[in-house]
Amino acid sequence: MSSDLSIRFVTRQDYDRWLPLWDGYNAFYGRSGATALSPDITRMTWARFFDAYEPVHGLVAESGGELLGLTHYLFHRSTTAIEPSCYLQDLFTSEAARGKGVGRALINGVYEQAKLAGLSRVYWQTHETNLTAMQLYDKVAERSGFVVYRKLF
């Protein structure tokens, strides 16, 4: 990746360049076409980045004026620590940027924001079939061994 890669907070002016990455992320997890997220969810997600009362944050990776990736994370309380934890919820890079350090740079950007906020824990989950991403994750974090259960209503 070129040396002009920057990781920065998403701005309101980024929407048109952020949206294709967001759509790509959702498509990767099967949320496209008939199973796509409601446009209301996309609008609310975007609005949360700019609401000081929301604990949801967005970073983007930019190079040469092009957005190459995104990550969204949130701070939340826990019953097992005094300080909040950081949950890295979404991470996506454009296909052309994969394998070039963009994902690692985005994760490191979240680490830096968590440290600046006084947090000592960042965690995330991925699908068990996301083997390519897991090769990176195994290098930048520890696998916790926890299994995620859910019930949708």
Automatic annotation (TrEMBL):
Protein name in UniProt: GNAT family N-acetyltransferase
Organism name: Bradyrhizobium sediminis
Domain N-acetyltransferase intervals: 5-153
Lineage of producing organism: Bacteria, Pseudomonadati, Pseudomonadota, Alphaproteobacteria, Hyphomicrobiales
Stored InterPro entries: Acyl_CoA_acyltransferase, Diverse_Substrate_AcTransf, GNAT_dom
Gene3D superfamilies: 3.40.630.30
Keywords: Acyltransferase, Transferase
Top-level lineage group: Bacteria
Pfam families per record: Acetyltransf_1
Keyword Disulfide bond: no
Transferase among keywords: yes
Residues passing through the membrane, by range: none
GO molecular function: N-acetyltransferase activity
